[in-house]
Amino acid sequence: METYNAEVVGGIHGVTCVFPTLRSVIDYEEKKKVPNQGYPRFIAHPFVVSVQNRHKRDNLEVIAIQNPEAADFVRLNYFDDNTREHSSVESHENGKNRYGLIYVDKEHAQSARDSVTNTGVILNSRKAQRILNNCESPKQSDSLPLSLSDLEKGSIPELTFIYTSGMAAVFDAVSSFLKKETGAVVIGNTYVDTGKIFRNLPDRFNYKHTTFYTEDDKISLSDSISVVFLEIPTNPLLKVANLESIAQEAHDKEAVVIVDSTISSPYHFSPFEFGADIIIHSTTKSLSGKNNHMGGVLFVNPYSPDLAKKIHHSIFKIDGEEGLILEENLKSFPDRIKRMAINAEKVAEYLLHNKNISRIYYPKGLKNGRGHVISFELKEDDFRTAEAFYDNCTLPIKGPSMGYERTMLMPYTLITHFSDSDKDLAKIRLKRYLMRLSVGIESSDEIIGHLSSGIGAIL
After folding, report:
1. How far apart are CA 276 and CA 303, in angstroms?
2. Which residues, in sequence order, are bridge partners of residue 359?
3. Which residue in 32, 321, 330, 407 has the fewest CB atoms around it within 10 Å?
4. What is the DSSP letter of 194?
């Protein structure tokens, strides 16, 4: 497997690498060529790799984790039985930076890495850099919960909890509120790793298997559920469910309603107004907007404060330095998100009337516009058409993630569902070459010009 130096957006701690051609995406998915840096949950940052190399042992793989408690928790509560039996956790400290190491034999290493990736507890690059340089962590900001709760309507700082990643927040919420002999309901498409948590936890514990509904299904909640989860809007088809109706029925069953509102952001939707119990955001995305931060936030509804006692937040708490970066980035969020939404409206109008675009997905039912994310299908769902568009599109940032202040193009299905069959994709209503666009703050004319270069190359 070849490793290459990737172009990374966001500087030394950037969270997105660029895949300039559609073939480069396929090479990555087939593990032929892997960038040395990219989205941190999937591609270990060079600083993290250096920390791991310091602790290498013969015949064992080592995975660096944000703290020893998170390493223990994920190993005990998410690893399958065989992987857990062939792994161990160690606690280390360097420069007053505590971190955990998971040692696992090579036969079970991939399973362990997948679990760590899925739960979002990998050591972050800033902490790894401090470990390598034997530097102390700066003091965490006490005002960050207030800054975030000021944005999320109906929340309060005392019930605002900040995590090492959005996936860590999702994992904590789901694992905290699932109960024995009960199950979960997931409504609509979700981020692919969120779906894995809902599929894997029932196999590890005595939970009923998760029921998955597509956006178009008629939803029926059984009496034996304890969690209802949905994204608003859904990812990547951008549907907005009737949250108020869902929450009322869920509460009748005494289930907790968890909403991942990352794509809408607090500017475009307020889940607590419609009865949600828990709101989650990946702060990595539009809340940060700079592509140089990794984190997540979980809000507990003040009308259900006892729910906060069930989460394990301290295990997954954000690194102090990472929190300072987020607080600085939040200052520009209000202006950024408005400009992104205005641009997205103009870009959506352009795509809607283009003969080489067969369908666009653009949310309805939000507030303050329709958001900054658009998904679209090309006139033919085949590799030739997708390659012509993607390779000739002159947008500088082509790769995973969203919410950056510059426009990002992602071949969504190809990256997130590469190994799925056509039958599996049809079940979740995804075209194989669906494109997702996260619109930035550049001028709308500039964005449309870049897209036109790709669309014009389609024969």
Report:
1. 10
2. 377
3. 32
4. H
Least confident of 148-152, 154-158, 222-226, 431-435: 222-226
Q: Per the omega criterion (within 30 degrees of 0), is the bond before 334 cis?
A: no
CATH number at residue 89: 3.30.70.2750
Q: Count of domains in the chain?
A: 3
Q: Let me know if residue 138 belongs to a domain.
A: no
- Name the helix (H) or strand (E) containing 75: helix 68-77
Q: Using DSSP, state whether 376 is helix, strand or coil.
A: strand
With beta carbons less than 8 A apart as the criterion, state whether 210 and 198 touch.
yes
* Angstrom distance (rounded) from CA 308 to CA 250: 19
CA–CA separation, 373 and 33 (whole Å): 29
Which tokens belong to 332?
Answer: 């520009």
Beta strand 211-213 with 183-187 is: parallel
Q: Does the pLDDT of residue 346 top 90, yes or no? A: yes
pTM of the model: 0.96
CA distance 281 to 319: 17
In a domain, 301, yes or no: yes
Q: 65 with 123, same domain? A: yes
* pLDDT above 90: percentage of residues in the chain: 88
CA–centroid distance for 176 within its chain: 19
Ramachandran area for residue 387 (φ above 0: left; ψ -120 to 50: alpha; else beta): alpha
CATH number at residue 402: 3.90.1150.10
Q: Does position 77 have pLDDT exceeding 70, yes or no? A: yes
